Amino acid sequence: METTLDNKLSILSQLWLDYRDDAEFTDFIEYNDLGLPLAYAISNDIVKITPTAERFIAETFDLLLAALDVEDEGFETLEDVLEAGSQE
User: Could you tell me the pTM of the whole model?
Assistant: First the structure.
């Protein structure tokens, strides 16, 4: 089961809001300096999603899973993703 686009947007938005100043995520946040705030902007109806934006979101989410060394299990929340990453 793959994480839905809405859940990806929510997870990435929450990550950007809660962890953008966290030293553990510094490299990830800096590298994804477009995908994370874009997810936030789309989630909060600041901008409309486009096919290009959707690709940025998918890539950013895939990079998050790779950084945590987890497979996509159809996550619903950031806590689910982080918990899966801590079990590896």
Answer: 0.94
